[in-house]
Give the backbone structure.
Amino acid sequence: MTTHQAEAIGRDRFAFGDNWLKFIELMDERRIEQAVASLTAALGVEDLSGRSFLDVGCGSGLFSLAARRLGARVHSFDYDPDSVAACSLLRDRYASREDWTVERGSILDEAYLAGLGTFDIVYSWGVLHHTGDMWGAIGAASALTEPGGSLFIAIYNDQGLASRVWWRIKRRYVQGGPLTRKSLLLGGKTYFRTRTAVANMAKRAVGEPVPSRVPRRGMSQGHDLVDWIGGFPFEVATPEQIFGFLHGRGFRLRFLKTCRGGLGCNEFVFTAPRTPRA
């Protein structure tokens, strides 16, 4: 990791782990089942027995737990020590330490990555764009994927001007005090509620079904809001940029779920080349 990259991670960084420690107090079997369903739908398999699973930036550890429930050997790591604590606590509550390692590490730390080896499935949902070096992080994650294995990543969609506005809001949040943060969270909550209400009204007007308010992927709307408003560093990419970057490294796109040009993450599952590239 270069000095610039280390500074990008350490300076003006949102306390992701603190948010995850609070989230796991809401954990229950329903959320775990939703996470398992989300993982199997994207990967196209319902059994990971005999496969190795690397969770890059494990956060709460929910998807590490989902992979373990599916039979995978799991290795979870995160740069944030509170995220490591959250993941460890979740493991101890719902699983065991057998075939599940949790430790602190950075996807930008070349020395740390050198000791990991490669994995059948490398998973990183909504993480690599928060490192301060998104393209370097995506490249590093791809290098950890076993030949013929799966790379499952989710990256914030590039909305142009809107993304630049969100970048400023997020930076303001991490630099501000308690009052500033509360104001930004309240403003964000009002914005998203109004946005959802208008969208639902439009759907009803044309006879389209209104989507359920059940949280996706087993997550929590409240904790997702805090993560979204405060999540900094913050980078974005178009689906075409992600595809071009990994296709140039020999990866083949197998699954794609976009946010239709809007706000949120585009999800990708790539298959690594069978023959490692030089």
In short: Confidence is low (pLDDT under 50) at residues 1-8. Residues 178-205 form the longest helix (28 residues). The two ends are 21 Å apart (CA to CA).
